[in-house]
Design goal:
The chain is mainly alpha-helical. It has helices spanning 11-15, 23-27, 31-48, 52-68, 72-89, 92-106, 115-131, 135-151, 155-171, 175-191, 196-212, 217-222, 236-250, 253-276, 282-309, 313-337, 351-369, 376-399, 409-425, 429-447, 451-462. The radius of gyration is 24 Å and the shape is globular.
């Protein structure tokens, strides 16, 4: 399934909540104004600590006091931060109202003085639009933000907007377009010193590369790369390893977690490709099984670390969902390996162990789903779970042993229906369509006695008899 990382727009609250105020300026302010700036700082602290309800109250007070002082610029920025905070709470109508009010204020400021502020508000609006299933609108907002940043000679923010645009393109499934944009950025990113922006850019590039597959000479030419370019440098696993190194160096927990997710996804994809690759002889087949198992181990390690370090409950849950998908793959691969490949793979669970771990992980995921705010990430989390459970039903049809005792089509359908209802509340037609497609898969598999996927798995097992 498609998965986009957190956009760089969220950094607005953390790094540029207000135009800077020096100590002498603060000292010259009246008591009420000084209290307002102190309140904004407190709001930022609450936001960083995850106390979004507390941050909302503080920021609403700041908005009112900036309005009373006639300070439209700072009122607009406070409104954008209020929108960000409402987004964290899943209060989408209030988030839209706050960002719209901020934009209306900036339009009252004479032309030529508000370009940078408008760019920052467009960053926040793009994040809101992507989170509520409007990637086309988000793409337009970030393109406009980039133009304003360039007019203001803020090249770093312009690059951040380009990375956000690539995230929107990937959300639309336009991976080649996203890749073309990111490849153009790669040279400047690689030459730049280590930074959060560089780590995020390489993460987006690595995810896009995984989506399109290996970079062939034809694709490289289409992307505008030189014929002499070393295509090995464009391996998704290589790019993501560098992104993770930088994320650890700058010590940003969210970026570390997101990059670990990318690393895990790339290793899972690589393991699947080895599992499914045609083999000419038994030795080649056995080596692919061993290498695939190692890739799965690395993927699982990455997902588990991501779940541990992620500051966001949503990211932690997504990591667990990815681990659940992996365990289903491992359960199948274990059946192929057990008793056949004489290699020590201590971290790869046996089929029985995988079944037990699937049960435990499923219970943990179920307990967390209802705690998420009703946003696009929560919708996709439910759909990810539903698709994994459909895959598990397919595998059960082959093995005849349920990994989850109470797993039924009705349970899966209920998960999908909840996702559809949440997507309808967000007016996210694209996600509704995606959800209904998964629901169709569920009943198609049922009517075909677990369908072609189950047959493929059976063929793999029979090949080892």
């Amino acid at each position: 399934m498609k998965r986009t990382g957190l956009t760089l727009g969220i950094l607005l609250f953390l790094v540029a909540p207000l135009p800077s105020i020096c100590a002498s300026e603060l000292a010259g302010l009246g008591i009420s104004q000084r209290a307002t700036y102190t309140a904004v700082d407190r709001g930022r602290q609450l936001y960083e600590a995850g106390d979004y309800t507390g941050a909302v109250e503080i920021l609403r007070q700041a908005v009112e006091e900036f309005a009373a002082a006639g300070d439209m610029e700072r009122q607009a920025i406070a409104l954008s931060n209020l929108s960000l905070t409402y987004q964290q709470l899943g209060e989408w109508t209030k988030a839209r109202e706050a960002i719209a009010a901020g934009e209306a204020l900036l339009l009252q400021i004479p032309d030529g003085t508000n370009g940078l502020l408008l760019a920052q508000l467009l960053d926040v609006r793009g994040k809101l639009e992507l989170a509520t299933g409007q990637p086309e609108a988000a793409l337009d907002s970030w393109r406009r933000a980039e133009a304003f940043y360039r007019e203001s000679d803020n090249s770093e923010k312009a690059i951040a907007s380009q990375i956000n645009q690539a995230e929107a393109l990937q959300s639309l499934g336009l991976y080649r377009q996203a890749l073309k944009s990111l490849v153009r950025l790669r040279a400047s990113l690689m030459e730049a010193p280590d930074s959060l922006l560089k780590a995020r850019g390489l993460l987006s590039l690595g995810n896009a590369l995984r989506a399109v597959g290996n970079l062939t000479p034809t694709l490289a030419d289409d992307l505008g790369l030189s014929p002499d370019e070393d295509l090995a440098a464009y391996s998704d696993r290589t790019i993501l390893a560098e992104s993770l190194r930088i994320a650890r160096a700058v010590n940003d927990p969210d970026t570390i977690a997101q990059t670990l997710m990318g690393v895990g996804n790339s290793n899972l994809s690589y393991g699947n490709s080895l599992r499914d690759r045609p083999k000419s002889n038994n030795d080649e087949r056995n080596q692919d099984l061993v290498d695939g198992a190692k890739a799965y181990q690395e993927a699982r390690d990455a997902y588990q670390e991501a779940a541990r370090v992620a500051p966001s409950p949503v990211t932690a849950l997504e990591a667990q969902l990815n681990e659940l998908s992996l365990l289903i793959e491992v359960k199948e691969l274990s059946l192929l390996i057990e008793g056949e490949v004489d290699t020590a793979l201590d971290n790869l669970p046996t089929s029985a162990d995988a079944r037990s771990q699937i049960q435990q992980l499923y219970a943990e995921i179920q307990s967390q789903l209802d705690l998420l705010p009703s946003n696009r990430a929560a919708v996709y989390a439910r759909l990810h779970l539903a698709q994994s459970l459909i895959d598990l039903i397919d595998l059960t049809a082959v093995q005849g042993v349920r990994a989850i005792a109470d797993l039924t089509e009705e349970n899966i359908d209920a998960t999908i229906q909840t996702a559809v209802q949440q997507a309808e509340a967000l007016q996210d037609r694209r996600t509704i369509s995606y959800a209904l497609g998964i629901r169709g898969n569920l009943y198609e598999e049922s009517s075909k006695d677990a369908g072609d996927e189950a047959q493929r798995r059976q063929n793999l097992l029979e090949a080892n008899d």
